[in-house]
## 1
Amino acid sequence: GFGWTSSYASGKGRDTITSGFEGAWTANPTQWDNGYFDLLFGYEWELVDTPAGAKVWHAINPKDEDLAPDAEDPSIKVPTMMTTADMALREDPEYRKISKHFHENPDEFADAFAEAWFKLLHRDMGPKTRYVGPEVPSEERIWMDPVPAGNTDYDVEAVSEKIKNSDLTIQEMVETAWASASTYRHSDMRGGANGARIRLAPQKDWEVNKPNQLEKVLGIYETISSETGASIADVIVLAGNVGIEMATGKKVPFTPGRGDATEDQTDAASFDVLEPHSDGFRNFHKSGINVTPEEMMLDKAQLLNLTAPEMTVLLGGMRSLGISSSGHGIFTSDTNTMTNDYFDTLLDMSVQWKPNGTGNSYEAFDRSTGDKVRSATRSDLVFGSNSQLRAIAEVYASSDAEDKFVGDFISAWNKVMNADRFDVQ
């Protein structure tokens, strides 16, 4: 934008209008040196007002060599400055320990700054497999969420058969795969099924992931993994595909090669922020959240890089298979067969929806008899109330849309399962 433009005098150099924090922090502001800490610990400081009225700190009785050059004429010297945030590095006991250590060990400070700067610029680029160029570092940092190379040399069909014979339900297989893959965030390329971090803290204990059910399912997958050579990450995704194939009779694409991350490769605290407090696809919404479930669902969809039709078909397919943490929104009598019953029933005009007082769920009453016939959440009903989403829902509710519904679901499902497969994209 043009926020930098100014009509005051020349509008640049010493005439630049700033936020009010005016000055340099060191005597050589264009050179890398230890001057910042030298000044911070070398002087006593006093609080002063800048010409713009901001509060900054100036050194008391600074030496000439510790003054900064003027913005236009280097022969003119001006005071250096510190903000209150800078003074905290000196006055706060814990910050002071760190700052003094860096002051006394400038080489270590330079290395630490280089690491922090590299992290700042690359934090949203995803794992190292996405880096290109001659300066890609050989070592991996834990904040890159490293994943060891996966194995592709195993019999996928044999693994599929073991999964089918495991006595797991379609719902357990599909829900576990979704729980693993849907942590992906397109905003910073974190999360996803690769690494199978759903078996590690903190993901294994997240409420949305049904820890007791998850423990049972992962125990079976670990056995299959050890017997076949497939990674647990691959087994999780393949099992989700198997569940969908059982429900649709259609083949779901699968690309092996995911790896299994270890606890040492996982910064557990950094994964806390990936915990879903709401997941409309699983009809999960924690109480006490000041954002509506449908808004949270839209945010989840954009983090997964989904289009509106992909979001719609995925949610409808999940409900068709009986996946709903709250139990609401299940509009079919056969949750082992994927049909478009969900959309057909959702758009039924013979019922009237009324809130039941919970703030999130609604009940449908037959307009003729007054009987309560079903229940749903805001995440369900938005596909009938929002004009754009309703138009998509009407397509999938059509009597001749069964094949399209299943085909589109498989396509969108495959997209989510492979969202973090940067090694094959």
Note: The mean pLDDT is 96.
## 2
Amino acid sequence: MPGIVLEKRYERLRRIIGDIIIDRNSKNKRAIIAFSGGVDSSVVARIARDVSDDDNIIAVTIDSEIMHRRTIENSKRIADEIGIRHFILRKNFLDNSRIVENSIDRCYYCKKNIIREIKKFGKIYGISVILDGTNADDMNEFRPGIRALKEENVASPLADAGIGKREVREIARFLGLSNFNAASESCLATRIPLNEKITYEKLRMVESAEEFLWKLGISYLRVRNFDGIAIIETLPEDIEKIIYKRDTIYDKLIDMGFRRVCVDIGGVLRKYRTLEI
């Protein structure tokens, strides 16, 4: 692992995770990882498995209408790669009016629901300790979901260890995780403008469009659904790919139900990503 500072932070992370699992349990070393299959929660899951017995650590993924199918499939693959028990819980978030109305606090209510579902599941197995993949950089961004994590007493060892996004990826590479350089993901609800009602139809249009573009070789992207207008965001170097295949892309997205198709020449913008949990 390059860098003595990173090595020290990695060792500190191991100690923090070990201490959380031990100190918060009076009788065992069991814990649940709130698991998305992304690089952050994967690092936490892998280290938790390493510092405890394999059967004591469980990864739990919440599957709902706002989750991309590819995200769920990736979570299965990465959990299998780590060698950790993995459960997927189905939850309908579109029956929650506070999530559907899509206010600026949507992520708070969504995260609150996720953790409460995981806690219910944990009671079945006698597990009350929950860890997640929130990192140090996340703490400096506008993320309403972090408030829910604190209220529900969820441990965020990456943040506690002062480990940010870049360092998480370096640790993941050191651990041999295949997703160490995978593009960051966020739920499909982030593609709908704030205060615009979230519907199943809007989410499926976004998911179908992103899946289609992904198959064309555009791996890091977002398709925003602005009242039926598709706004494609990707890396600047991939915009040329979209322009080259514009007729195919336009026809396909119109068939999906979009009434216009646009490309944001600014790429994947930070001002949107700060609202993505």
Note: Residues 35 and 61 are 5 Å apart (CA to CA).
## 3
Amino acid sequence: MKFKTFIFYWLPVLLYSGLIFYLSSLSKPIPDVLLVEFSYSDKLLHIIEYFILAFLVFRLLNFYKVSKAYLYAIILTVLYGITDEIHQLFVPGRFFSVYDIMANSIGALLVFANKYFYKKN
């Protein structure tokens, strides 16, 4: 693997997924400083967070010309979200949430929807 390929395609995925893991390892979640608090604002953060991850994974897979890169990006992102929720079972003060998995999955699926929106326009 070339160094440039690693820096531009692999490193963003590794750093971003590492950031997600780190944040979910905190006993107390970081307060929503940038968002106005409203019902389910944390779910919006999950959607955005996993949209970005799915996009980065898609970018990596697309670079390697993987057939159905969007589909694999969604699957990998959803699986990462599930394992992240399982990981939170072992973090004091955190818990497993099916609703978080749903929000993570919506974020990943929006990358696919984004593909079709821009393809039609």
Note: The mean pLDDT is 89.
## 4
Amino acid sequence: MSEDSLTRVVDGVYVPRRGVYTLDPVHTFVSFGAQHLVVGRVRGRFADVSGTITVGDTSTDLTLDIDIDPASLTTLNDIRDTDLRSARFFDVANFPTMKYRSTTVTVIPQNRWLIEGELSVRNVTRVVRLEAAMGGVTVDSQGMARVGYHATGSVTRTDFGLTTDLAKESSGVVVSGDVLISIDVEATRSRT
């Protein structure tokens, strides 16, 4: 395989060329959704996301390192966004950064990965599993190798201290405890 190739097959899985890929903040989205009033879903996203993906020699030698600014969240509703940023939920004044750091990566069928890592929210760290797939690799208009990934997972918000009196206020039906996470990433390989 040529060193100039964008991808390679390792252990039967397509992986990008070795290196450190920096997340492109314009093309990286961390979104969330939670059941609302039993009949719908509240959706939102964090606009300020940074980090790296480090690709090594094997199909599981992949490290994900992401920082998220919880103050950058939007659900397209100012009242709800203010509440979510408050001490009732993310408490962004006291906890300005959320972090996800992968710890293990396992190849699963259909060219996908199961990524286990530690998510830190409000200084509470829990193991969170993500299922990921590579969207592709290309050379962008700047001549840089660009890789895309999509990952999904879920968390229980109360595990991170994101608790309020919602259960008392609504008989437990305003917003579910389980939150779905969707991550879409584009990252460029650092020039060496």
Note: The longest strand covers residues 124-139.
